[in-house]
Design a protein that fits this description.
Layout: E1 15-16, H1 18-36, H2 40-70, E2 74-80, E3 88-96, E4 103-109, E5 117-120, E6 124-129, E7 134-142, E8 146-150, E9 154-158, E10 164-169, E11 174-178, E12 207-218, H3 230-236, E13 240-245, E14 251-256, H4 271-289, E15 292-299, E16 303-310, H5 313-324, H6 341-353, E17 359-364, H7 371-386, E18 390-396, H8 398-404, H9 408-417, H10 419-433, E19 439-442, H11 447-462
Parallel strand pairs: 14-15, 14-17, 17-18, 18-19
Antiparallel strand pairs: 1-10, 2-3, 3-7, 4-6, 4-9, 5-7, 8-11, 9-10, 12-13, 15-16
Helix pairs in contact: 1-2, 4-5, 4-11, 6-7, 8-9
Length: 463
């Protein structure tokens, strides 16, 4: 991945370093004493002060020459490795100097996304970039899911004596999208009763329109000619036609709440990350099953993202790409009604789907919102049910997630303190169930499995 180019245009103004300020102060003292003194010592003091001022001036000219060369540096950031959550990537920063001015002892800081973890080496180096030459360094990071930006590298240029310095931002930002991890769950692993209906967990067969042959039977008036089975006809000396298995598939849309409350906690263990991983697992599983899968979430700073239901591995690629494009919401902005992004997502996805039918909506949300917002969410979900859709709310339970980071006695004490929150969630679940919308409170380890079991149970009812 290449993100090179030229220096950001800035005024080439040098700044005195503490050492430079000491030299300036010393030269001022010497000149003042020289003018106040008399005789040979006066001349020596004035000469020394003048020399120090001249040294400052030469150093400033030297720095400005280096800044001229730095202004023509070509910067490239190369990222190597698999952009999948939790993987290691190697970042290499290359600086090319097309001028004849050497850039000695320049300090380079290559900043990376704050939620990535530095694994090896350092992202700061003091390097020499020779005239008409290049220099580079590299370091290793551990990734986190979603879309992230590498800021512009920072370079500190100094004169040879370190009396002046200038800090510059060079090159350009690099944007990376990191795919979430997912679990490949075989259908046999899901603990549901085998279905006797087409499309259930245990494959059943019945006549219909499809691609797999169900049986061969004798021709009847009205059968299509293109369905004649010529080999059987020749063998039996009578017209035989092919019957096909009926194909049945589900249509599922995953809706993810990206409100700031979903990212509270340690990176790698937040409710949002587990929800995205579950969405990825659901997408991969349903694609293997031949079902239709869609996605909706509000991307902070970008607005509503909707992937209409589709099937096949080409569609799965677009689905996963959308999941990897999620910017992290800021937990600090968890205030006010604007931070509850689920409302806008549900309103948008209703408008995008529009049609009536048996689409299954899987909603991932922690439901950490006020009573008014909960009521609005319930009204929107009821509207979906009124259009004939099925709705299931899978709610990552904050007490379960926070208790996961604790162990032993601490975990037990936390669960006792979380009783009020558990009671609140039970009251919300009861309210939703009164409108036919089940809420399942889940912990971090069974989010995807719960969703897939529910989908398979719905498959038996709907198909």
């Amino acid at each position: 991945m290449d993100a090179g180019t030229k220096l950001e245009k800035e005024p080439l103004l040098a700044v005195l370093t503490p050492r430079g300020k000491s030299v300036l102060f010393g030269s001022s003292i010497l000149l003042a004493l020289g003018f106040l003194s008399q005789g040979p010592i006066s001349k020596s003091l004035i000469a020394s002060g003048t020399f120090m001022l001249l040294l400052l001036y030469i150093s400033k000219l030297s720095l400005e020459l280096r800044l001229y060369a730095a202004g023509r540096l070509i910067v490239k950031r190369v990222i190597e490795g698999s952009l999948v959550e939790g993987s290691k990537i190697r970042v290499r920063l290359l600086l090319e100097n097309p001028t004849i001015v050497p850039l000695e002892n320049i300090e380079v800081h290559d900043y990376y996304p704050s939620i990535f973890r530095l694994e090896n080496a350092s992202n700061m180096r003091i390097i020499l970039v020779r005239p008409k030459g290049s220099a580079s360094f590299e370091y290793t990071l551990r990734t986190a899911m979603g879309k992230h930006r590498f800021p512009k590298p920072l370079v500190i240029v100094r004169d040879p004596l370190g009396l002046f310095s200038k800090t510059l931002r060079i090159g350009s930002e690099t944007e990376v999208s990191v795919l979430p991890r997912y679990e490949r769950i075989p259908s046999q692993k899901l603990l549901v009763i085998p279905s006797t209906k087409p499309g259930g967990l245990s494959a059943t067969r019945r006549k219909g329109v499809g691609t797999q042959i169900f049986e061969v039977r004798e021709y009847q008036q009205g059968d299509e000619v293109r369905r004649i089975e010529w080999k059987s006809t020749a063998r039996l000396l009578k017209l035989m036609v092919k019957e096909f298995e009926q194909e049945s598939s589900m249509e599922v849309i995953v809706v993810i709440d990206t409100s700031p409350s979903m990212v509270y906690g340690r990176v790698g263990y937040t409710k949002l990350e587990y929800s995205v991983r579950a969405a990825a697992t659901i997408g991969e599983y349903l694609t293997r099953r031949g079902d239709y899968i869609g996605l909706a979430f509000e991307n902070p700073g970008e607005g509503l993202i909707v992937i209409p239901p589709g099937r096949g591995y080409g569609h799965l690629k677009a689905y996963m790409k959308a999941l990897s494009s999620l910017y992290w919401p800021s937990p600090e902005k968890h205030a006010g009604p604007d931070s509850y992004r689920l409302l806008g997502t549900l309103s948008g996805v209703i408008g995008a789907v529009r049609k009536r039918g048996k689409t299954v909506f899987i909603i991932f949300t922690d439901l950490e919102m006020g009573e008014k917002e909960v009521s609005k969410v319930l009204d929107l979900l009821s509207k979906m049910r009124g259009l004939g859709h099925e709705v299931l709310v899978l709610s990552p339970s904050t007490p379960f997630f926070e208790a996961k980071a604790l162990s032993g006695l601490q975990a037990g004490l936390y669960r006792i303190r979380a009783l009020d929150e558990i009671a609140r969630r039970k009251a919300i679940a009861k309210l939703f169930l009164s409108r036919g919308i089940p809420i399942v409170s889940v912990g971090p380890d069974d989010l995807a499995a719960h969703a897939l079991r529910r989908i398979e149970l719905l498959r038996q009812v709907l198909l």
